[in-house]
């Protein structure tokens, strides 16, 4: 009499690992730039899950680079210090006094916390800012308000990127964590740079395989606010046609995705940072989550 086969309750775990195998093979050795922001930055559970995901990428043979801003933390610190802060055309008006706070919060608070979370899993993360080793250089950026050019202070746009320091860290098996501030080679001032824009420019300069942008929505909606249907995949040209209709909060994210895929990055993805382990779900499952932007003419592949 044959013995009945024992039912292994762990079998679904093995099936998940097998599903991940082709994606592990495809992404091995590739650089992935992750923009860290939104609720994932302020919720302790999401922060811990984010750190686990990034360390998993590293141990799975990928080369993750993290770029972060810190809007909520900057606003809280400015309020605490009694420094007025306003936005014009979606950009924070940044006085020299406010810029000191931006620098302090990004490099001294947000980055330190993120490096600490990653390094709970081993001596992996190294923090730097765009100022370090001239990683990012910036020029003064102006806002357009009602067709007029408006001075918004120490807000910058990236003019050049030197990837040497980041590539050296990646080659050493480290995880670079980059704060989105940059110095100008013209006037010597330090500028606050939009983190979505910085992540996209860095992904292009590193010739990354993927740019991933964490946000507080499921992805790019097909017909917001009339529908909550998320566009799973679209080409650069399709995205460019949609840009004028997007909400102001999504514009820098989707402009960054467009810049990335038109400058050598394989795919750009906007994913829901409110979902624990959203990075792993996007990279290592057949379905993925969020919205993926691909260069024009690329086949239908995640």
From TrEMBL:
<feature type="binding site">
    <location>
        <begin position="70"/>
        <end position="71"/>
    </location>
    <ligand>
        <name>substrate</name>
    </ligand>
</feature>
<dbReference type="InterPro" id="IPR036393">
    <property type="entry name" value="AceGlu_kinase-like_sf"/>
</dbReference>
<dbReference type="InterPro" id="IPR001048">
    <property type="entry name" value="Asp/Glu/Uridylate_kinase"/>
</dbReference>
<feature type="domain" description="Aspartate/glutamate/uridylate kinase">
    <location>
        <begin position="30"/>
        <end position="272"/>
    </location>
</feature>
<dbReference type="GO" id="GO:0042450">
    <property type="term" value="P:L-arginine biosynthetic process via ornithine"/>
</dbReference>
<keyword id="KW-0963">Cytoplasm</keyword>
<dbReference type="GO" id="GO:0005524">
    <property type="term" value="F:ATP binding"/>
</dbReference>
<dbReference type="InterPro" id="IPR004662">
    <property type="entry name" value="AcgluKinase_fam"/>
</dbReference>
<keyword id="KW-0067">ATP-binding</keyword>
<feature type="site" description="Transition state stabilizer">
    <location>
        <position position="253"/>
    </location>
</feature>
<keyword id="KW-0808">Transferase</keyword>
<dbReference type="GO" id="GO:0005737">
    <property type="term" value="C:cytoplasm"/>
</dbReference>
<comment type="pathway">
    <text>Amino-acid biosynthesis; L-arginine biosynthesis; N(2)-acetyl-L-ornithine from L-glutamate: step 2/4.</text>
</comment>
<keyword id="KW-0055">Arginine biosynthesis</keyword>
<dbReference type="InterPro" id="IPR041727">
    <property type="entry name" value="NAGK-C"/>
</dbReference>
<dbReference type="Pfam" id="PF00696">
    <property type="entry name" value="AA_kinase"/>
</dbReference>
<dbReference type="InterPro" id="IPR001057">
    <property type="entry name" value="Glu/AcGlu_kinase"/>
</dbReference>
<feature type="site" description="Transition state stabilizer">
    <location>
        <position position="35"/>
    </location>
</feature>
<keyword id="KW-0418">Kinase</keyword>
<comment type="function">
    <text>Catalyzes the ATP-dependent phosphorylation of N-acetyl-L-glutamate.</text>
</comment>
<dbReference type="InterPro" id="IPR037528">
    <property type="entry name" value="ArgB"/>
</dbReference>
<comment type="similarity">
    <text>Belongs to the acetylglutamate kinase family. ArgB subfamily.</text>
</comment>
<dbReference type="GO" id="GO:0003991">
    <property type="term" value="F:acetylglutamate kinase activity"/>
</dbReference>
<protein>
    <recommendedName>
        <fullName>Acetylglutamate kinase</fullName>
        <ecNumber>2.7.2.8</ecNumber>
    </recommendedName>
</protein>
<feature type="binding site">
    <location>
        <position position="92"/>
    </location>
    <ligand>
        <name>substrate</name>
    </ligand>
</feature>
<keyword id="KW-0547">Nucleotide-binding</keyword>
<keyword id="KW-0028">Amino-acid biosynthesis</keyword>
<feature type="binding site">
    <location>
        <position position="192"/>
    </location>
    <ligand>
        <name>substrate</name>
    </ligand>
</feature>
